[in-house]
Design brief:
Blueprint: H1 14-57, H2 59-78, H3 80-96, H4 99-126, H5 128-134, H6 142-154, H7 157-171, H8 175-199, H9 207-232, H10 249-285, H11 289-305, H12 307-326, H13 329-356, H14 358-362, H15 369-401, H16 406-429, H17 434-459
Length: 468
Amino acid sequence: MNPRNSEPGKPISQREMDNSYRKEERFRLLSFSLPIMAELLLTCVISMGSQYYLNAYSKDDMAVVGSLSQVVNFVINLYTIISVGGSILLAQAAGRKDVVRQKELIGTMLTGNTVFALVVSAGMLLLIHPVMNLMHIDASLTVSGWEYLAVSCGLSLFQSLLITYTAVFRSLGQMKTVMIADLSVYFVCFLVNLLIYHLIPSDQQHLWQYTLSGIIGQTTGVIFLSARLRAIFPGTRHEKSGKRISVPFLTRKRIMREILRYGIPGGTEGLVYLIGIAVCTSITGMLGTGALLIRSYVAILAGYLEICLTAISTAVFPLIGQNFGRGSIGRIRYDFRIGIGFSYMLTILVGVFFLLFSRLFLGIFTDDREVIQAACTILRYQFLVDMFKIPAAFGVSGLKAIGRTREPFVMVIVSGIVEVILAYLLGIVLRSGLKGIFLAYAADNALRGATLCLFWKKYTSPGRTEKP
């Protein structure tokens, strides 16, 4: 690296080299993060339009979707097992510019998640009624519930492929491509919902039609990303026969074992986290419907509050992975630090803005002054949760990027148990209500963040270059 102010023939000092690569890493982090921020913000806005049409069609069906969406999210997170494991290896291969390895990994990821999705979809179709009984869906809503789960889980192959393609492009650093694809998915979904609501007579509308709009949107994203992938990695063919060179079955099997080695703990970490959130939601339900309502309002604002953190921690993953593949330990340590620094700065700015105007934003959803006052109070606790969440999020992203997936998996179990115990003790036993439950969330993030950052420091200490 030659800084611009270096004279020809003059040796470059370590300080000049550090300044040069620091500027380069800051630029790469911003170029990775900004498209993700725009994507998250715009998709939130567009998805609100889709929710509006579903709510206008039927509030009962909206309730069904709200209740069963946890099941759908669980199914979707199953597909991250392969995509997370593959993206770890793919980012490192991209850093080494190993094109052959990248093609092998991408082909194995797509094939593996396709087969896995077909098995999961078939299993979910058989389990629809037991799942609805488990979720205590009212008998009058079983038809709508069956329609929702049959379409969203039975056709989850498209969601599986979309998750895989997204992981591939993010590992390669193609954030703008993912942004365009996701915006297309949400816009097509919104457009189809609009057409269903206005063109189909209300007495002929069904929940499966609105659910199918999501599948149509996902299919659009898959087609777009598939075309882009073929443009980046055109198929290699034999010079004489002209036949496409494919990855042998035994090679795919070996690569899949590598992917699952990282993917099983890396992907199930997210599933365990969802289980912990579901248990805490159940504890919140013990406080009454009002507490659930306040929590839902705070969750809406928290989604916007966490956009910067989500974007930067997502961007840091391929950045660290690629530099780790090159063996640049100094760079990955710097990537980690500037990622946390940017996240704190932006989260504090956005958080202060939301706290100052919280009453105005909450007034969009309700005019009940008591609910608004309670939600404003809990929003301050949510801000505290997000402050502790930053090191935890980067600890997970950083360790996964260098192939250390066991530590985040173990810690999400340990801290999740602490979270559930504290939520019950503070919120129910000591009668602190939502304040106590949100303090439990903060304790969970604080424990995970501190521990994972210590692991990060250990595995990226100066002179330590070996890979897991």
